Amino acid sequence: MAVGVNPPAWEKQGSAEWLTCPKCAKWFPVDPQLIAARRIELVCPGCGHGFLPQKDE
Amino acid sequence: MNLREYLDACGPALWRVAAPLSVVQEITALQHALSEAGRYPALLVERPRLADGATSAMAVVTNLFASRVRVAQLLGMDDHRRAAAAFARLAAAPLEPVVVSSAPVQEIVERQPDLRRLPALRQHELDLGHYVTAGHCITLDPETGVDNVSVQRCAVRGERSLTFYPYPSSHNARNVAKWEARGERCPFALWIGHHPKVVLGAQAKLSHPQSHWGAAGGIAGEPIRLVQTVTHGERLKVPADAEIVIEGFVPPGVRVADGPFAEYTGYVGVQTASHAVEVTAVTRRREALWADFGAGLEDHLVPENMAMEGRLYTMLKPLAPSLENVHVPFSGRRFHAYLQFRDPERGEVRDALAGALAYRRLRTAVAVDEDVDLFDERQVLWAIATRVQWHRDALRIDGLTHPNLDPSLPPGASTITKLGIDATLPPAAARGRPKPFVPANTVAKEALAVARRLLEGVDPSPWPSA
Q1: Which of A14, A33, A43 sits opposite B128 (nearest CB)?
Q2: Considering only CB atoms, which chain B residues are within 8 Å of A29?
Q3: Which residue among A15, A40, A45 sits closest to B407, beta carbon to beta carbon?
Q4: DSSP-derived pairing of the beta strands B364-369 and B416-422
Q5: B296, burial (CB in 10 Å: exposed 0-12, middle 13-18, buried 19+)
Q6: What is the ipTM of this complex?
Q7: Interface touch A42/B255, C-beta < 8 Å
Q8: Other beta carbons less than 10 A from residue B194's beta carbon
Q9: Which of B25, B44, B93, B372 is deepest in the core (most CB within 10 A)?
Q10: Residue B421: strand, helix, or coil
């Protein structure tokens, strides 16, 4: 089994992912499901810039 | 009954802040500083400064609910420690609302409002923007026409647009989902600012679909005066004596990013998908007051937790007649409850623990005896440390619904494991006999009285406090 796939229940997994704004580089926490959906524009709390998450983010 | 009547009667429990505090973090910072100092006045910020530096035309009222003592007094309780039974009793005696044709909250009707001129606070670092934190959001069940009220966060996103984030398992979320399944817009309104009794009453924890107005009237002690909204007419009504109402629709199939927002857990809630509101009107009093809850602070948690105490008492008392009291402590946010019993029969405590854990908001319930002060967490922890054998007294239940925004939730989990802890003593062999357990350490009352007299008049300040 690949590392990180179906980890055992006692291994803690995070509930938030962090992204950086492509315009102002501010970090902010995002729901992983929102990133995975890739169809709702994220909004930077620092500068208000809206952007879709990229595959490499 | 309205907010300004309450403020007029507050006396020294209200701090009128003349300094021009900014809506960007400064008002909330004052609440944090007061919390650190262990002081909980209500706050009226007379000249709040908007983000662009202009002075707001509306004053901001916050911290109204930060004190359990004051909330209890509001509801006519002598002792905040007995809120569970009192809240349950008040919520069980509803007073149906009355509908009026003209209302103070409709003195001004704006059909082309600009929400950005409202003094909505940007409370914490990382918050997405300015939030309506004390918005009592109303939606309708399309099948029954029954309305629902709940405090849910809404971010101001434009002149006439808001986000709307009802937690996925909330009654408002169920209502919106039903409208969405029909492909129709959900009628929406939120009201801000009212007498604290009405605010507390509107937070009564009820079934779905079940309107909150009756319970709110019961808790407030008089029927709530309602008025038709200017957008939705009689199908959606709002309190006539509120300060501000924002009306609109939740369009189907639309999702926008909401958050980050500093939440009741004490942690920042992540940016997530939320509904949107297309705003159609703002109605308000002529000199309206903007009401706010300090998110994650006592102001936010105290009224909710006291309402939870009432709900748990109502749920559990029929299961366990020996239940005496319930405390939902600030330290546990909304995840912990302490249950107190007096001489429970065998099985009663575990029945009650299982019932408590079925309440979505809770993760852990702790049962203690009548000799443990539920409001002294050192005593609760002492009971856990000394009365519990984990193989026997830990009630672990998998697959239960979870509280929203639990930051420890594993990714993708739709249910969680919860824990009940029976920290009560074993029962006596017969009523009136001592419990088969070693007694707690005590000294004679007379000896304690001598010691206390000795301490009177002594300055303890040079002595270490920890």
Answers
A1: A43
A2: 126, 260, 268, 270-271
A3: A15
A4: parallel
A5: buried
A6: 0.90
A7: no
A8: 27
A9: B372
A10: strand
Question: What's the CA gap between B435 and B426, in Å, rounded?
Answer: 6
Instruction: Note whether A30 contacts B: Cβ–Cβ < 8 A.
Output: yes
Tell me the shortest Cα–Cα distance from A36 to chain B, in angstroms. 11
Residue B146 touches partner A, C-beta closer than 8 Å: no
Task: Check A29 against B271: CB less than 8 A apart.
Answer: yes
DSSP string computed for B48-84: PBPTTSPBPSSEEEE-TT--HHHHHHHTT-S-GGGHH
**pTM, two decimal places:** 0.92
Closest residue in chain A to residue B262, using alpha carbons only: A29
Over residues B290-341, the pLDDT tens digits come to 999 999 999 999 999 999 999 999 999 999 999 999 999 999 999 999 999 9
Q: Does B422 touch chain A (CB under 8 A)?
A: no
pLDDT tens for B155-198 read 999 999 999 999 888 899 999 999 999 999 999 999 999 999 99
Q: From CA B439, how far away is CA B316, in angstroms rounded?
A: 29
Considering only the beta carbons, identify the residue of A29, A40, A41 that sits closest to B270: A29
Which residues, 6+ apart, have CB-to-CB distance to B335 below 8 Å? B361, B362, B363, B364, B403, B406
Residue with tokens 């960007």: B24
Strand B225-229 relative to strand B98-99, pairing: parallel
Do the bridges between strand B272-284 and strand B256-258 make them parallel or antiparallel, or are there none, so unpaired?
antiparallel
| Distance, C-alpha B287 to centroid of its chain | 27
pLDDT value, residue A1: 39
Give the DSSP letter string of B353-377: HHHHHTSTT-SEEEEEETTS-TT-H
Closest-approach residue (CA) in chain A for B413: A15
Phi, psi (deg, nearest 5) at residue B171: -65, -35
Q: What would you measure as the largest C-alpha separation in chain A, in angstroms?
A: 42
Report the chain A residue with the minimal C-alpha distance to residue B128: A45
Q: Name the strand (E) or helix (H) holding B296.
A: none
